[in-house]
Amino acid sequence: MDLDGKTALVTGGASGIGRATVMELARNGAHVICADVNAEKGAELKKEAAATNFAVEFVSVDLANSESVRRGVAQVLERHPRIDILVNAAGWNDLQPFMENAPDYIDRVIAVNLGGMLHLTQALLPAIIAVGKGKIVNVSSDAGRVGSSGETTYAAAKGGVIAFTKSLAREVARYSINVNCVCPGPTDTPMLRSRPEKLKEAFLRAIPFRRFAKPQEIADAIVFFAGPRSDYITGQVLSVSGGLTFAG
């Protein structure tokens, strides 16, 4: 896939699915901006990318803070007025019953997984529209499609990502901008590794392939939507879950 000359921004790009996506976009020729709250991991990613001659840079963005989001976007646009691809890959939550969710926790989960995405996408849209075409890929979760016990607030936010994808796709089709959504199932990321062993074993029993996704496998789906092979696809939701969710 040829993405030479394209500039992409990936949120949550310093680890997990976001990191794999940054590297895959760069491998295909894009200049990639990693937007993440973790500057230390961002520096590690830049060093790894430089060792392979990939064009990757970092900008600090805290998606839970709308001012940080707008400030980060302004910094990016000062250096790169042309943005071709936006991947909203950041996500965060903890595992706990809904009745135990503290108000601050609810606010942060919604901000990181949905609110920050709205602010960042809105701030970048004029630059994408100015190009005359573009690709926006939102990363939701199968929790947002079918629900997930112990992740109710997270599922609500990720369900919002799916609705946002479909509605935005209708609004920006006139500008030849594609907006699609990837819904990962359980994926071998730092967030999954922090889960209790019993929960991970239950996930494995429920997945027909009997293994977790690799971040690269999710990145492959994201890059498909970000590239030219999806030019006539918009407003769609693709589950990449090893068969965990056949319906819903």
The CATH superfamily label reads NAD(P)-binding Rossmann-like Domain
Structural class call reads alpha/beta
Strand order, main sheet: write it out.
3-2-1-4-5-6-7
DSSP summary, beta strand count:
7
Which stretches are low in confidence, meaning pLDDT under 50 for 5 or more residues running? none
Description of the molecule:
- By secondary structure, the chain is α/β, with parallel strands linked by helices.
- It has one domain: 3-Layer(aba) Sandwich (Rossmann fold), CATH 3.40.50.720.
- 48% of the residues lie in helices and 15% in strands.
- It contains nine helices and seven strands.
- Strands 3-2-1-4-5-6-7 form a seven-stranded parallel β-sheet, sandwiched between helices.
- Helix 3 packs parallel to helix 4 and helix 4 runs parallel beside helix 6.
- 46% of the residues are buried.
- The mean pLDDT is 93.
How are the secondary structure elements laid out?
Layout: E1 7-11, H1 16-27, E2 31-36, H2 39-51, E3 56-60, H3 66-79, E4 85-88, H4 103-131, E5 134-139, H5 143-146, H6 152-172, E6 177-184, H7 190-193, H8 197-206, H9 215-226, E7 237-240
Parallel strand pairs: 1-2, 1-4, 2-3, 4-5, 5-6, 6-7
Helix pairs in contact: 1-9, 3-4, 4-6
In short:
With 248 residues, the protein is α/β, with parallel strands linked by helices. Helix content is 48%, strand content 15%.
Which key terms come to mind for this protein?
globular; 9 helices; 7-stranded parallel beta sheet; Rossmann fold; alpha/beta; 15% strand; 248 residues
